[in-house]
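Private note to self, pasted from the team thread so I don't lose it. Backbone tokens:
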């Protein structure tokens, strides 16, 4: 039944959101701005998908005069371009590793002949910098579809990026699972008809994730067991057999109240 896995990137494949936050703040300093996004504020800003969109949202809320200037869009573009370059440098120098279980699950899926896709609202350069450093230079051949903000401009929670991936994979949503980390990502995947597994981190662990097939604090490893925050499971980590069961037991991907009606119990 399970034929494809579709992964988000930031926060899902690797815990990169703190690096993004630091890169934003350094860029603001470099531009002579007194802006500072602390962790609590950044958690709120993550409700908006896309770096340029977060900058715009913040400026409209805290510096509306600047946001109203004729060249504001160009200013945001320059800010974001420098932030993206700085983020790539920070990834390379710090070598941010993939979250536990991600590489294991990717290899297992490839060995089983599953089709893999990436659906992210981040830039292609961000995904490339992360995966070049962790999976080697041929990682792009692992994925039959890679859609980013460079190819799909409509950001999550719109389903466009997932629909584009599904079109390229030529798979029906009922045969795929999305793996995400944010409410926007969940909304986008569900709107595209996908059962969605959420892996939370420090910036999203307090969210409700209504309608998710399962909510975990990661994919886990045999020696690094995950914690299930919505649902019940007796295994310490996610494997393909487990995902097959998730897909089979997920009754109504379109219902935001499904999880309020019953828990998904995996023996």
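Design output:
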């Amino acid at each position: 039944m399970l034929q494809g896995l579709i992964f988000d990137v930031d926060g899902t494949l690797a815990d990169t959101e703190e690096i993004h936050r630091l890169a934003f703040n350094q860029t603001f300093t470099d531009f002579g701005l007194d802006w500072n996004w602390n962790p609590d504020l950044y958690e709120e800003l993550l409700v908006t998908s896309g770096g340029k969109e977060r900058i715009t949202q913040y400026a409209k809320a805290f510096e509306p005069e600047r946001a109203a200037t004729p060249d504001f869009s160009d200013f945001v573009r320059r800010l974001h371009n420098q932030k993206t370059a700085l983020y790539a440098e920070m990834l390379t120098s710090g070598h941010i590793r993939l979250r536990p279980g991600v590489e294991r699950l990717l290899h297992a899926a490839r060995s089983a002949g599953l089709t893999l896709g990436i659906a992210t609202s981040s830039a292609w350069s961000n995904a490339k910098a992360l995966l070049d450093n962790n999976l080697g230079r041929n990682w792009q051949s692992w994925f039959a579809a890679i859609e980013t903000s460079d190819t799909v401009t409509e950001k999550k929670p719109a389903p466009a990026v997932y629909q584009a991936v599904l079109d390229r994979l030529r798979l029906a949503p009922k045969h795929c699972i999305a793996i995400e980390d944010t409410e926007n990502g969940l909304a986008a995947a569900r709107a595209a008809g996908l059962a969605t597994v959420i892996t939370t981190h420090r910036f999203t662990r307090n969210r409700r994730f209504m309608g998710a097939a399962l909510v975990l604090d990661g994919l886990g490893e045999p020696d690094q067991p995950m914690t299930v925050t919505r649902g019940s499971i007796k295994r310490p980590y996610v494997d393909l057999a487990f995902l097959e069961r998730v897909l089979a037991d997920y009754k109504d991907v379109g219902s935001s109240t499904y999880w309020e009606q019953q828990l998904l119990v995996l023996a």
